[in-house]
Amino acid sequence: MRKIAKNLKGTVKYRQIVASIKQIGLIEPLVVHREKGSMGQYMLLDGNVRYEVMKDLKIDTVKCLVALDDEAFTYNHKVNRLSAIQEHFMIMKAVKSGVSETKIADALDIDVAQIRKKRDLLVGICPEAVELLKGKKATSATFVQMRKVIPMRQIEMAELMCATSNFSASYSKCLIAATPTEQLVDKECSREVEGLSSIDMARMEREMDSLAKDFKQIDEVHGKNVLNLVIAVGYLKCLLDNARVVRYLAGNYPEILTELQKVSESRMLEADMDQ
What we know:
Elements: H1 12-24, E1 30-34, E2 42-46, H2 48-56, E3 64-66, H3 73-77, H4 84-96, H5 101-108, H6 112-119, H7 127-133, H8 140-146, H9 151-164, H10 169-177, H11 198-240, H12 243-252, H13 254-265, H14 268-274
Parallel strand pairs: 1-3
Antiparallel strand pairs: 1-2
Helix pairs in contact: 1-2, 1-5, 5-6, 7-9, 8-10, 11-13, 11-14, 12-13
């Protein structure tokens, strides 16, 4: 079992786990693996902090997941963290189910004001922009900036953030700075950014407008291009299933055969089709 750092019990994360287990019990089970050559002995693969919390709370029995493989990489590395939007929907679902905001705050060991802030995260954000950013790492500060513009611009901002994989508040502020005045909710709202002159702002606005148009154009043709390539690769696979064709290429053009086989075995196009 992995040792816990001595200063861990003083961290916010540890206090939140303590509060959560006290209020609603263990949500995420511990993951264990049966030790070879021993009866009833298990190795803890994931959940060291939760285990330490339950020891402090004098909890003797909990449900565990029994892993078939003795490896902790999957549990420690391949864990999906909740996005701000997912947190919002979970809180809304809990509130609709009758759970009070105070109880949710107690379970997460945070102030009620923080729960209300998460609850109101998407107020003023259009559904199309929410759908684009669902599952992305957009922060609450990003949505604060997005509320400053009209729905159409919100969608454009979401598309640009997805295209660049940049969901930071600083990037969203730059997008606001490059937004035409007529697309702002408050026309009197200042778009000034520290270090940028009015000339720089005007140039940025033109460049962002050009970038948005280029992005839409590329987005329109990308799907068609990928589909054409998938069809071409399918035809190539049919050719390589023909033994006579493979023998001919192997005898006369072995380098070309190698490259064609690499193309036919590629999974990149399948990933693009799934997106």
